[in-house]
Amino acid sequence: MITDTKQWRRYFRWLGVSAAIVIADVTSKLAAAHWLELYRPMRLSGWFNLTLAHNRGAAFSFLSDAGGWQRWFFSITAALVSLLLLVWLWQAPPHARRQALGISLVLGGALGNLGDRLRLGYVIDFIDLHYAGWHWPAFNIADSAITIGVILLLIDSLLPARKTPGR
Question: Has 116 been annotated as catalytic?
Answer without folding.
Answer: no
